[in-house]
Amino acid sequence: MKKLKFRFQIGAFLMFLLYGGLFFLLFWRFFYIQSTGEVHGYNLQAEAANKYSRETVLSANRGRILDRNENVIAEDTMSYRLVAVVRESATENPKKPRHVVDARETARVLAQYISWDEEKIYEQLTSKKDKYQVEFGAAGRSLSHEVKEAIEEHDLPGIVFVNDKKRYYPNGSFASHLIGYAVKEEQKDGSFKTVGRMGLESIYDKELTGKDGKVSYDSDVFGYLLPDAKKMVEPAKNGKDIYLTLDKTIQNFLEDAMSRVEKEYNAESMTAVVADPKTGEILAMTQRPTFDPDTREGLESSWLNAVVEDVIEPGSTMKTFTLAAAVDSGNWHPNATYQSGKYKLYDRVIRDSNNGVGWGPITYLEGIQHSSNTGMAHQLEIMGKETFIEYLDRFGFGKKTGINLPNEATGTLLTKNPVDLVITSFGQGSTVTPLQLIQGMTAIANDGKMMQPYVIDKIVDPNTGKVVLDEEPKVKGEPVTADTAKQVREILASTVTAEAGTAKRYQIDGYEVAGKTGTAQIPRENGPGYYGGNHQYIYSFLGMVPADDPKLIMYVAVKKPNMSSAISGSEPVSAVFNSVMENSLKYLNINPDNTAEVEMKTVGELVGKQAETTQVELTNDGFKPIIIGEGGTITEQYPKKGTPLSKGSIIFLKTEGAVTLPSFTNWSLRNMLVYKTMSGLPLEIVGEGYVYSQSASANAVVTDSSPIVVKLRTPKESFQTTEPEEDSEKLPQD
């Protein structure tokens, strides 16, 4: 019995040691884990956070690019990313497959909508079955809503779309070489980022790029937010917005005119820029060939912003500054005469544009009007080379303007050799940029003050509203006096109006134009000398309007237009200049020179009066009263009492009874909307601008609810370029 008891006690003791030891080890393990937070080298807190913490990225928008009136030029917009689920386990119900079932058919369909071919798509769908889903690189990103819907119509199993963003350029080819473009590019970590690759998109990529935010929270195994769990939000910071000096309306005038002329004359290249001479602000800038920043179609032609980065021999537009130098230095004698035709310098002969025949003895003023090369040579002889070189420097030639754009060219002034200096005086040999010509012209247009061109108005942080960059007009210098500038404008205006003027084609009805035509030779790319033959030149015009107080200056150049020998080289140039200038002046409400001062009169209280009597009184006062109704007592008027109106303005008088339609011809959109509201008639107003047709004739009494269609069009749509006289300027020959 004792033996049995002893054995039991030993057994119990051993069991105690075993379980006690196990308990101690377990206790020690708990203590160790609690104190260190690690198991087999893994941090439990980190593992738990990894399993139960959730983080959602809040995508930042890339900054917008806008014009001076806050019209969007470039912005981020909603797009879609194409994803294909390839793992079979994603499908729970075979009747409703959630993975790609038929890879071949799926590849065939997708190849119709993305840039990958069928075989490449098929390989992507079948070679990565170990993955849950696959994507299609840049080809499957930035898809439009239309493409998404088209693919969804095929009802392909396993094909899903994820919301994404893309850079959107709503205006198409719109100052494309200035704006540039941005695209999504895959980064080293496999993520995608929008990166600027050209123009302002590239130059200001850092400022435009935003910083993604995130939402962090603890969840259960199903991903739901745990009770009392903290939700941490780090907001996204959108990229900065860039406001340009461009005016969308003027830029569209320019783009339309350039496209029209490019199509008609098939020129090798074209360049144009419009600026405000009082401030130096660039209002429009473009070139041809151009490209669509959304598709990059046409980009292979040229990556240079020609206005800033390209150099040309300016041709006779340079005579503007030779003339200004002569006037300002006291060496201009407009009524003095010289023998035109030829000018000999050492072994070189300078010839006028009519093959050196000239126009006999003519005055220096007539020489400018004829665009005489020999006149400039004689003028340089009078003025002296040192004086001329000094004024070239004053006008900023041979150095950068300082515009807020990179890669600006300086051009090259050839002034050491006497022959080079002479041909520089009329625009050959030396090179300039179109932007330098614009900058120099601001001094002539702005009473001697030369304004530095600029295209960035301001940069704003949309997250705080803070303006981080604010550009202001900057006077670059005063190369000539105000009196000189005024005199030069008058002389340049005579090249448009004088019988001998080379710029007669640039006349704009109602506005006085001042400017200088140019015909520049083009250096051969391979070998010395210049291209020769029919229209193998750069035709240009540097002008301003109105001549007495210019509000706009513009430079247009057309290189090697394809046209018959009977057509003047200034024809395609003037087609751009005249159209853009006239439409822009009207858009800016710059009245024609022959517009008289408008007399204003205040509208009185008309409600309660008799319509017929009031109609006579208003007509005698110079207004155009429109009665809406059968007549009798006026129940409503527009405009209201106290509104100042000019003579010829419409005043609406509402009465009771049936409505008789007036003639809507030349009514503005605003007046049409007022009439529609007051009359209650079923008017369908189509277009913008001014009325040119109506479906129901004037004086018809409206008796039913049939819609009346009224069509409008803008002055731009109505504008037809008048056929100007032939330009007499031709190639200057040595």
UniProtKB/TrEMBL annotation:
Its EC number is 3.4.16.4. Coiled coil: none annotated. It catalyses: Preferential cleavage: (Ac)2-L-Lys-D-Ala-|-D-Ala. Also transpeptidation of peptidyl-alanyl moieties that are N-acyl substituents of D-alanine. This is serine-type D-Ala-D-Ala carboxypeptidase. Belongs to the transpeptidase family. Signal peptide: none annotated. One of its GO terms (cellular component) is plasma membrane. Residues 713-734 are annotated as: Disordered. One of its GO terms (biological process) is cell wall organization. Keywords: Antibiotic resistance, Cell cycle, Cell division, Cell membrane, Cell shape, Cell wall biogenesis/degradation, Membrane, Peptidoglycan synthesis, Repeat, Transmembrane, Transmembrane helix. InterPro entries: Beta-lactam/transpept (IPR050515), Beta-lactam/transpept-like (IPR012338), PASTA_dom (IPR005543), PBP_dimer (IPR005311), PBP_dimer_sf (IPR036138), PCN-bd_Tpept (IPR001460). Pathway: Cell wall biogenesis; peptidoglycan biosynthesis. GO terms for molecular function: penicillin binding; serine-type D-Ala-D-Ala carboxypeptidase activity. A transpeptidase that forms peptide cross-links between adjacent glycan strands in cell wall peptidoglycan (PG). Part of the divisome machinery that synthesizes the septal cross wall. Beta-lactams inactivate the PBPs by acylating an essential serine residue in the active site of these proteins. PANTHER family: PENICILLIN-BINDING PROTEIN 2B (PTHR30627:SF26), PEPTIDOGLYCAN D,D-TRANSPEPTIDASE (PTHR30627). It comes from Lysinibacillus odysseyi 34hs-1 = NBRC 100172. It is found in: Cell membrane. It is a single-pass membrane protein. The chain crosses the membrane at residues 12-31. Residues 597-657 form the PASTA domain. Pfam families: PASTA (PF03793), PBP_dimer (PF03717), Transpeptidase (PF00905).
